[in-house]
């Protein structure tokens, strides 16, 4: 007799009208009952396709199986076998395009809510005492990891578990990278980031904060100082602007600046914290990626009356996760699709008073495969706004490149590295995350950190033998 | 944490700290700056490096108490620790043998001009220095500057010490006197640097200025420090802090320095209310 079908469990969330004015976490997490119900939906496939979609190959059916048996600790162990930052991933990974899209259940029904279960298990363990894995015997190799963001922390944790002595150099005063400065508290609470960083530290990783590599030490100096390998995970750098008139007016900020003030520096609690932030009554956020969603929703919480997302393409091309677009919409963010700013207008005192925009239409697909936005002649109009936040992406951080001869870069400024291993053109130097790919996701950066850790380990154990660089095309043949 | 090992009150509102930061001291070069965070709730503020001692592992910073953060910093004593001290940031001054160079320091800008003048002198340049302040009380490091200069002119706006003049007056006189100055460095408040550059412009002498903008991370990430130089947007933290003073859009720079004026006033008022003894005198 067929069992009664259990529906995919909805994530309890703060109500939109409440959450739009506070910085507390929006998603509240499954109750144990919900988690068990959701876990019971998993088919426990013999050949799990979900795992293939995961950049770090989390043992998905296994941890869900343990959870289903209420073996919470075992579930956590299985989860953390591949993922050192599960409470973070359970919150910010785009599961719908990674593991969940491959879930067999999703063909006829909704897929298993893998991300929500991951979060549940990680949160359970954090509240019930984190178990440390048994460390591998020390290898005696010293490895330097540059940047304590998702790529660097993952790489460092894996290397430490393999027995290497790892030092992470972080430029900022807090570890976490984009998890601290970029993603807002309401999507990823900072005490959760710090708890997972603490786990990495307890694995034996040394964290050196306030250490700007490229300035304090160069990459070559670190190699000379006895580090057998270096992983570069320095992430995003200078924000992109549109190169239109008025971008340096008072009231225009990059999303990086706006979010760093609010998240890392806690400007939303000014003057209790010293860093100020400016948010006017009417805010325009230019761009439609996850960063734009974060900036717009933060602006709302900081007291703006009206927040617009201004995007030159249409909703279908928006790079943000569907869930984040929905969250923003529910909270009252206004989406102006097919609209592109051409000039930011200032008042007599140099403050933003508006933005001149032009309407767009979609033409033939461009190099990105998305339909090219084309301006509609004569459709220009003015938007009255007093704050403009540019969320157009970033270039790689330039600091690490000072005196780094041998480190080849692409014309976009990113580091050239082999995807499967993270090896750069400079021997004994690996790289991964945004520094290689340009702005991407937390989990793809973690995947790169993980692959690099495996290759660094293999390289060190082989005593550095074998060719360093094999052209990717050759490698494939 | 970064321990303060010495403190000197150079003027009622101008303080010097020697901070234990061996790694920064090891790499610091003239023209670079550090980001300082006073305590865990503090903001990140850029301060130019005034001196460094590689052997002792210390870096000297000099700051003027103007807002909440610098006032709070001013309450710190030797033995106290700073939450963060990050650097050395920015590009170092290009020290070469240019010939005759002029170093102009105004107010708290005397601090960063000092290591530049010293390095230029060591590189074999003839160094003519001009230091000035609003009034005698705000002047400091006259002897240090004299020790690294072939000539030194001291001015005050009100004539309470040295020559009664703005620094641009002797600057112009020297340029007019026929001394062939090859390069000028000017560091001080934006308005002073603007006029140091304006004064040298007709003489066609390249003039470098060290821009002090609002920064958040200071490491090439946020873009708060953007300025317009030769019509292009540049980032002070990674492209600077030194730029060609003849090409800086000064009005924009000064406007952008004022973005958070209201918030700064609010923070300062709250600071004084909570800590009556922190209320400064005479400002």
Verbal overview:
Chain A has 17 helices and 16 strands. In chain A, the strands form four sheets. A five-stranded parallel beta sheet of chain A has the order 3-2-1-4-16. In chain A, strands 6-14-7-8-9 form a five-stranded parallel beta sheet. In chain A, strands 10, 11, 12 and 13 form a four-stranded antiparallel beta sheet that branches. In chain A, helix 12 (255-264) crosses helix 13. Chain A is of the alpha/beta class and 477 residues long. Chain A has helices at residues 16-19, 32-39, 49-52, 60-68, 72-82, 86-92, 114-128, 150-161, 178-181, 190-202, 219-224, 255-264, 290-301, 322-331, 434-437, 442-461, 472-476; strands spanning 142-146, 165-169, 206-208, 229-232, 236-239, 252-254, 282-286, 306-310, 334-336, 339-346, 352-365, 371-375, 381-383, 387-390, 394-396, 429-431. Chain A is globular. Helices cover 32% and strands 16% of the residues of chain A. With 283 residues, chain B is an alpha/beta fold. Chain B folds into two domains: 2-89, Translation factors (Elongation Factor Tu (Ef-tu), domain 3, Beta Barrel), CATH 2.40.30; 100-210, Nucleotide-binding domain of ferredoxin-NADP reductase (FNR) module (Rossmann fold, 3-Layer(aba) Sandwich), CATH 3.40.50. Helices cover 27% and strands 31% of the residues of chain B. Chain B has helices at residues 22-27, 68-73, 110-122, 142-147, 168-176, 190-200, 236-239, 250-257, 261-274, and strands spanning 2-11, 14-20, 33-37, 45-53, 58-64, 81-82, 84-89, 100-106, 126-133, 151-156, 163-164, 183-187, 207-210, 226-229, 232-235, 242-244. The longest helix of chain B has 14 residues, at 261-274. The radius of gyration of chain B is 18 Å and the shape is globular. The model of chain B has no long low-confidence stretch (mean pLDDT 94). Chains A and B meet through strand 5 and helix 12 of A and helix 1, strand 7, strand 14, helix 8 and helix 9 of B.
């Amino acid at each position: 007799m067929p069992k009664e079908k259990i529906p995919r469990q909805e994530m309890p969330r703060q109500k939109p009208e409440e959450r739009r004015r506070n910085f507390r976490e929006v998603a509240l997490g499954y109750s144990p009952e919900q988690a068990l119900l959701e876990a019971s939906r998993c088919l426990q496939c013999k050949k799990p396709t979900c795992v293939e979609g995961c950049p770090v190959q989390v043992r998905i059916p296994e941890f869900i199986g343990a959870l289903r048996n209420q073996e919470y600790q075992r579930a956590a162990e299985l989860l953390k076998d591949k993922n050192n930052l599960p409470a973070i991933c359970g919150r910010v990974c785009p599961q719908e395009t990674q593991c969940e899209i491959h879930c067999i259940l999703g063909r006829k029904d909704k897929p298993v809510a893998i991300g929500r279960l991951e979060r549940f298990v990680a949160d359970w363990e954090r509240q019930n005492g984190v178990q440390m894995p048994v460390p591998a015997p020390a290898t005696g190799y010293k490895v330097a990891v540059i940047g304590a963001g998702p790529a660097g922390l993952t790489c460092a944790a894996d290397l430490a578990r393999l027995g290497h002595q790892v030092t992470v150099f972080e430029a900022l005063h807090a570890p976490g990278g984009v998890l601290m400065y970029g993603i807002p508290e309401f999507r990823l609470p900072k005490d959760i980031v710090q708890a997972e960083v603490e786990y990495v530290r307890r694995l034996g990783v040394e964290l050196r904060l306030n250490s700007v590599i490229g300035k304090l030490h160069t990459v070559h100096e670190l190699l000379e100082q006895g580090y057998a390998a270096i992983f570069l995970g320095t992430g995003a750098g200078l924000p992109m602007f549109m190169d239109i008139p008025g971008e340096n007016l008072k009231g225009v900020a990059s999303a990086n600046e706006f979010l760093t003030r609010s998240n890392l520096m806690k400007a939303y609690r000014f003057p209790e914290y010293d860093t100020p932030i400016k948010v006017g009554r009417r805010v325009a956020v230019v761009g439609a990626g996850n960063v734009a969603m974060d900036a717009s929703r933060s602006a709302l919480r900081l007291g703006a009356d009206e927040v617009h997302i201004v995007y030159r393409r249409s909703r279908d091309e928006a790079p943000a996760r569907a869930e984040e677009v929905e969250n923003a919409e529910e909270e009252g963010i206004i989406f102006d699709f097919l609209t592109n700013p051409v000039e930011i207008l200032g008042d007599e005192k140099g403050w933003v008073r508006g933005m001149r925009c032009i309407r767009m239409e979609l033409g033939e697909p461009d190099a990105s495969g998305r339909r090219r936005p084309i301006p509609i002649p004569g459709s220009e109009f003015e938007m009255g706004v007093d704050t403009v936040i540019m969320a157009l992406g970033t270039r790689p951080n330039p600091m690490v490149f000072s005196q780094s001869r041998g480190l080849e870069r692409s014309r976009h400024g990113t580091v050239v590295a082999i995807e499967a291993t993270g090896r750069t053109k400079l021997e004994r130097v690996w790289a991964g995350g945004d520094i290689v790919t340009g702005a991407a996701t937390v989990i793809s950066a973690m995947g790169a950190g993980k692959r690099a850790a495996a290759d660094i380990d293999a390289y060190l154990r082989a005593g550095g033998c074998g060719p360093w660089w094999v052209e990717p095309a050759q490698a494939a043949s | 944490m970064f321990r303060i090992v010495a403190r000197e009150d150079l003027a009622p509102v101008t303080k010097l700290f020697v901070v234990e930061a061996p790694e920064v001291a090891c790499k610091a070069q003239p023209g670079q700056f550090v980001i300082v965070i006073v305590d865990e709730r503090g903001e990140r503020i850029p301060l130019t490096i005034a001196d460094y001692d590689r052997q002792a592992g210390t870096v000297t910073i000099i700051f003027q108490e103007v807002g909440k953060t610098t006032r709070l910093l001013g309450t710190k004593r030797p033995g106290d620790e700073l939450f963060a001290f990050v650097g050395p940031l920015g590009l170092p001054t290009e020290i070469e043998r240019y010939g005759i160079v002029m170093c102009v320091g105004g107010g708290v800008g005397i601090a960063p001009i000092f290591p530049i003048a010293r390095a230029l002198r060591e590189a074999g340049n003839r160094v003519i220095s001009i230091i000035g302040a609003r009034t005698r009380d705000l002047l400091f490091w006259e002897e240090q500057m004299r020790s690294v200069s072939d000539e030194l002119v001291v001015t005050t706006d009100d004539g309470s010490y040295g020559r009664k003049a703005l620094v641009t007056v002797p600057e112009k006189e020297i340029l007019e006197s026929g001394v062939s100055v090859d390069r000028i460095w000017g560091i001080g408040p934006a308005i002073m640097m603007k006029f140091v550059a304006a004064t040298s412009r007709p003489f066609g002498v390249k003039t470098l200025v060290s821009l002090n903008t609002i920064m958040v991370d200071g490491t090439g990430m946020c873009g708060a420090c953007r300025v317009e130089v030769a019509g292009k947007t540049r980032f002070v933290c990674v492209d600077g802090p030194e730029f060609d003073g003849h090409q800086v859009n000064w009005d924009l720079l000064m406007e952008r320095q004022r973005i958070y004026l209201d918030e700064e006033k609010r923070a300062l008022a709250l600071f004084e209310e909570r800590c009556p003894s922190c209320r400064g005198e005479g400002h």
